[in-house]
Amino acid sequence: MIDEGRALFQQIADHVADSIIDGALAEETRAPSTNELAAFYRINPATAAKGINLLVDRGVLYKRRGIGMFVATGARDLLRRERQESFAVRYLDPLLTEAARLGLDPQDVIDLIRDRRPAGGSIREEQQ
């Protein structure tokens, strides 16, 4: 679960963000505490706090004094937008560059993706 090649605090932030995107942590519900995260991942509470603070700084989590951290309204949409942009930069931009180099048009790329998708995988159908 822990990737030795990445900073632990970033991994903690990413795991909490994944839980929000996946719906395991709903908006306006309490997020795991620093101590809970530290115990679960067997890390220093200061490291867990640093990961949580990344999400607070981005407006994903907020603190209710004396109660704990909560998932902010709109956090899921914010995280999905950020991840979609990151996905586009990391995967789509190089794919489109190579497709252009090969002379593939957008429909050729769509066909290649459909042919290679895993069984049961879903790709939104274009409106026809």
From TrEMBL:
PROSITE patterns with a match to the protein in the record: HTH_GNTR (PS50949)
Domain of life: Bacteria
Spans traversing the lipid bilayer: none
Record domain HTH gntR-type: where: 6-74
Keywords: DNA-binding, Transcription, Transcription regulation
GO terms, molecular function: DNA binding; DNA-binding transcription factor activity
Organism: Gordonia iterans
Record's protein name: GntR family transcriptional regulator
Xref: InterPro entries: Tscrpt_reg_HTH_GntR (IPR000524), WH-like_DNA-bd_sf (IPR036388), WH_DNA-bd_sf (IPR036390)
